[in-house]
Amino acid sequence: MAHKRVVERSSQDKQQRVFLSERSLGEVDIYRYRRQYGVNLGSWFVLERWITDKPFREASPPASSDFDVATGNRPKEILENHWDTWITDGDWKWFVDHGINSVRLPIGYYHLYALDPAIVNGTSFNNVGWVFGGAWSRIWAAIEKAHSYGIGVLIGTSVLNRPLDLHAAPGKQNADAHSGVNGPITFYEKCNLEHTTKVLNVLAKQIANVPNVVGLELVNEPQNNRILGNWYEKTMNSLRNNIGMDLPLYISDCWDTYPYAKLIENRDDFVVLDHHLYRCYTSDDMKQSGEQLAASLPPKALIDGFGITKGNLVVAEFSAALNPSSLRSSEPPEQDRQRRVFARAELECFQASTAGFWFWTYKKDNGWDAGWSLRDTVRAEIMPNYFGIRPEEREQSQEANDERASQEAKLALAVHRDYWSQRGGKTSENWRFEQGFIQGWKDAFLFFKFRSNSNGDSINAVSELGFVGQWLKNRTAEHVLGKGGSPNVWEFEHGFRQGLDKAKTYFVQG
Question: Where would one find coiled-coil regions in this protein (predicted)?
Fold first, then answer.
């Protein structure tokens, strides 16, 4: 839905509020609303030399960014060879085998050159855009390949379900080489902000209706600035007017969670706040051991952000990396134990305080790294061997499922009535609670039973509703539309959440 303070309520808004009943639910809903267990495909398109230095061997000095590669020797040949070999079918199979249902795909605006060569006009890549002419076809192929495995892409300029996000924005949004170029930060110049909005609209038109694109991240880790919130608002409204309301939009909190969480709180459309969590850089982090850092989770940023955004919060980057000062031992087994304690605390924290996460990064080819490479962390048993609900064949007939739902609803309703009667509360419309419970139960199984029918390798993948608040907002609007408004609509919401939880317990335990 459009921003309620900017765009007047309309028939389009009403249609969005009841979309769950207006159209058949399908795979696009599963991909975008499910809990995301993900990994970043770092250095596939937006290059980072610490992950892989092979593409930089003929780059121009200082040989640390995409621009340096593009202005070096044989850039098109080198880049296209890297794009074609960095992620293979074996990697996609690895994701499925380890419960990864989403990838975050960082890309730069210059990777969209084939869509519109004017994208690089007036930018650092003006004279080298042609080098990236083969990027978009490969990005598109990656999205299709992910779909064949039941995997979503978040695009993050850099993002696709994998998240798709704009990692490298016109004008350089932060001081790191992964913004595409070296040099000063110029993203906040008016011309670059406007150009980034135009680029995002070009990209959004291509991906808005792709089922397994779980979202578009506007820009990756921009330097915090007082005008960023206003740019977020204007750009999201522009995108909504251009592509409609269905595609989730992700925004970075710049490690300043509260104001951007409030921005999301004041919107009705599907907007997600992205917080990146690392504990290996600051002086405070370096003073603490792995156990101490684990004990400090979840941070206040996640607790507050989850509540303010009503659950529309993710951690799109985190790792198992600790500063050498935190490890306090030169022995590898002890170092891995420290990382393991910290990493497992992260996962527990994310399960309770977010709707999903993406590990940074999938792999490196510059040696073993049990802090930053997911493949290495899994081999070292720092990260678990499987994420999410393990797929198991369960014989649960629809009749048995419905009967169990009815039984659990009656038990929950009795507890609900007793709880409020003892506290003098009014629950004169208990039927709303029971209806919510049944709906929550059914929706839980809608996700559990979803199966990608594109590739046999993904047939047993189990999805779980993750963006509960956003989903429930739509279900509540649907309930009110059909049953009328009432001060007791909260009973439907309470029932829904309890039904959702009970269904998961029943499904997991069998």
Answer: none
